[in-house]
Amino acid sequence: MIRRGYLDFGNGQLHYRYCGKESAPLLLMLHQTPSSSAMYLRLMPMLSENFFVVAVDTPGFGGSDPLAGDVTIEAFAAAIYQAVSAAFDQPALVFGHHTGAAIAVQLAYDQPEFVRALALSGPTLLTEAQKRALPSAARAFPIDDSGSHWQNMWQRLRGKDPEADLSLSVRETLLAFTCGDYYEASYRAVVEQDVVLQMAAINCPALVCAGGRDLLNSAVAPSVELLPQGRSAALPAEAGTYVCDRHPEAVADVLRQFFLEVAQTG
């Protein structure tokens, strides 16, 4: 069973989902923008036999309160670290997808004693063209009486994977409106992060992967080269940005093998 709760950070609360035995190795899961920990609902039970799985809503997303100050990847990581480390007295195996991968890198860079190992799906080692385009891809739509903003947001989120279940697109569209300005702000934060410097300084085991249709698939190989203990793994060729929703078995297999190896070697 997946349960839910809240953890404190600063002046706010972090909403999270969890399953498995708390005595097992802690596996922290970080979501993409503009989603929430709901994107891991299918994946979490598949890993709960081996890990204590904790999936948080990034501040300002899902059920979590926003940050008190500026929106940066560093601030996201600091809030999550404060909340999770205070509640669970053990280091973490950390998995992040897209924006969650950016936060995972920041966590490993800032808190090396906390992050035992790192797995990144769709790493945010962006090209200059991607950096220029990313914030505008999350720009808010003006609200009007006709409701055109709903249609525009639906088309944006549906366009990420037109073959996904309609319920998935509905969830993501609602979450995009729920996070408000944090949609665009988080993308700007990703662009501003010095991920090259951070990856090169991370010394824990690191696994990098992406679906074959993921727009960040091209960042896998250069990320592995940057990470001192980097390695890659394959995800389905037909998988895109919703790989954790649509191919949870494949993601679970990759994560289980990697993180169990880390846990067993200490």
From TrEMBL:
What InterPro entries does the record point to?
AB_hydrolase_1, AB_hydrolase_fold, AB_hydrolase_sf
Q: Where do the AB hydrolase-1 domain residues begin and end? A: 25-142
Q: Which SUPFAM superfamilies match?
A: alpha/beta-Hydrolases
**In this record, what's one Pfam family?**
Abhydrolase_1
Q: Which PANTHER family match?
A: HYDROLASE, PUTATIVE (AFU_ORTHOLOGUE AFUA_2G14860)-RELATED, MONOACYLGLYCEROL LIPASE
Protein name as catalogued:
Fluoroacetate dehalogenase
Tell me which species this is from: Microbulbifer aestuariivivens
